[in-house]
Amino acid sequence: MDADTAVIGLGAMGSMAAWQLARAGASVIGFEQYGLAHDRGASGGESRLFRMAYHEGSAYVPLLRGARELWRELAELSGLPLLLPTGCLSIGLPDIPPMRNVRASVEEHGLDHEYLAPDELAARFPQHRAADGEIGILDVQGAVLRPELAVLAANQQARRHGARLLERTRVDSVRFEDDRVRIGAGGTEYAVRTVVLAAGPWSASLVPPLDGHLTVRPLVLTWFAPGDAGRYAPERFPAFIRDTDGVHLFGVPMVDGMSVKTGFADAWGDIAGPTAFTRDFDESRLWPVTEAVRRFLPGLHPDPIRYSVYLDAYTSDRTAMVGGLPGTDRAVLLAGFSGHGFKMAPVFGRIAADLALERGTGYDIGAFAPSRFIPR
C-alpha cells in the first residue's frame, strides 16, 4: 500500500480532510491537479463569510460550532490571520424565510446576538439603506475567513503530520477492489485502503453517477471603493447578508485597505463544466450588482473596481453530499456544497477523516447522504 488514505482534490474540503487524517495518525497521500490554493475552484476570493445564525436553517448550527473551533485552532497552529471577528449582520423583513431561520438559529441554540429594530438598524449601521420594516440580527460570532491562506494552512498542517501531497498531479482513474483502491495519477498507479473524493466542480469526472446531479456554476465576486473608508473598517462594518425584494446580497468589510467586497450568490447561470470556465464576463452582466450596490450601499462607488470569477458545484436541492460513496465501503464523498460550504470546511474535513478511519462520525449528516442521488 502507498498510504492508508488518499485525498483527491486539495482545496477547502480536501485540505481539511488531509489535515485531520494525518493528525489522526493515518498515512496520507493527496492529489491536486493544480498548485495548492489555486484560483480555479471554489476556495478563492480573498474573503468569505462565517456565520453561526444560519439562513439555511438551524440544523447547521452544531456543524458551525465545530467548524468555528477548528478555524480558531488552525489559525493558532499556523500563526496566520484566518478568521477575523467582525460579526455578521442579517438584514430583511422579519417574516421572510431566511430571517425566520436566522432567528430560529439564535433562539434554539442560544447564540450570542443583537436584535435591531428598523430604527436601531438605521442608527447603528447607516452604511446600509434598509427598506421599510426591515430589521437586523447581528450574529456576534460571525466573522470573515481568508480562504487562500486557510487552504495553504491546512495543507501545511497535513504535511507537518507526514502527509505526502502531490501538486500538479491530475487523477485520471479511480478503481475499487475488494481490499484496496487503485488510483492512476500523473502516469503512476497508487494503492490505498480508502479514498476521500473532494474534487469540487470536477467531482463528476471521478464519480460518473454524479453526472446530471451536479451543476457547475461560476461564482462572480466584485469589489467596490468606499467614499469614506473609515465607515467600512471591520470594527464598524460587519460582514453582512441580506434579502430584499428578491435580491440576495452579501459582503464583507474593507479588509484589503481599499475596497468592500459584495455581490450575489447563485445568480450567474450554469456552464457546461470546468472546461468551459472563463474569467471573461461581459460588463453588462455586472450591472445588476451595480444597481444593488447603488440601491442598498449608497456610500460605495457603484461601479466595481475589479471582479473575479471562480467555480462551484451545486446539487438540485442545494445541500452538499457528505458521506460514504454508495457501492463501496472504501470511499468518502465530499461534493456539491452549493455556494455555502467553505465556512464548514474544517468540520467536514473532520467528518471525512472519521468516516475513512472509523466508519462513523458523531455529527448528524443524514441530510447530506450521497445515496439520495447515487443508487446503492
Automatic annotation (TrEMBL):
UniProt cross-references to SUPFAM superfamilies, sorted A to Z: FAD-linked reductases, C-terminal domain (SSF54373), FAD/NAD(P)-binding domain (SSF51905)
An annotated Gene Ontology molecular function: sarcosine oxidase activity
UniProt key word Oxidoreductase: yes
Assigned keywords, A-Z: FAD, Flavoprotein, Oxidoreductase
Entry cofactors: FAD
FAD dependent oxidoreductase domain ranges (all copies): 4-355
Position of the signal peptide: none
Gene3D superfamilies linked: D-Amino Acid Oxidase, subunit A, domain 2 (3.30.9.10), FAD/NAD(P)-binding domain (3.50.50.60)
Pfam name, any one: DAO
Protein's name according to its UniProt entry: N-methyltryptophan oxidase
Organism: Streptomyces antioxidans
